[in-house]
């Protein structure tokens, strides 16, 4: 009976039971007051940044900026002075010149194909730049932009041609009922299916022929090509301008028949690539 009376009487319920009073506050995570809240884990508010101070135009850094900033792309952290940066650039320039000269000599020795001339020494290149650095920089920047634009155009046209050739081959295969003998024979001989529709001319067999700069065709000097007096002086040490003597029709310089045939293929590709490049530049102007 006493247990029933205590269950019915709320006054006899223990003091710890029942809802919390209004003075008991619940913190983050369900903890009651007395437990450490989670607010202490939040970072303190950031103070406002002070206003940026303008650099004194008479400070050493401001006065040195016109001399230092032009060299910034070429200076490394280990350089102690501009002489170090210039020495490193000269080494890179000298290595590039040696590689080009070796390539030119090897191509001529094997195929009697002449490439664009290379300056005889690195000093010739450096002195030419020092005589008029601003004009040389402007010329080089213009050439760099032109080559980059043409390479991008070559890549786009090659992608279009590859897609057109693949589509024509698929259509041919479907029309022939999968007969392999006629699937690859669509189009006129010496032309690529779809190349005429793209306005690339009738003599485009593959996308590689569109790569004038990317394939290095711009380095080859054709036997019939007119060159400047300066280039002629640099190329005067090469006795022949091609694999075949134009007067006798014999192989020039005693090269093998295989080398002469390969050289003629190279020169033919350069001629076709040059014509395609001229047509591409004409379309760009239009």
Can you summarize this structure?
By secondary structure, the protein is mainly α. It contains 8 helices and 2 strands, in the order αααβαααβαα.
* Total beta-strand segments: 2
Radius of gyration: 39 Å
Strand order of the largest sheet: 1-2
The percent range for helix content is 40-55%
State the helix count.
8
Determine the mean pLDDT: 75
Q: Main β-sheet, in a few words?
A: 2 strands, antiparallel
What does this structure look like?
The chain has 286 residues and is an all-alpha fold. It is 49% helix and 1% strand. A two-stranded antiparallel sheet has the order 1-2. The protein is flat. Mean pLDDT is 75; it is low at 6-32, 180-191 and 193-199.
Which features characterize this protein?
single chain, 286 residues, mainly alpha, two-stranded antiparallel ribbon, flat
Q: Helix and strand layout, with pairings?
A:
Layout: H1 2-8, H2 60-68, H3 82-111, E1 114-115, H4 122-131, H5 133-175, H6 180-183, E2 220-221, H7 229-235, H8 257-285
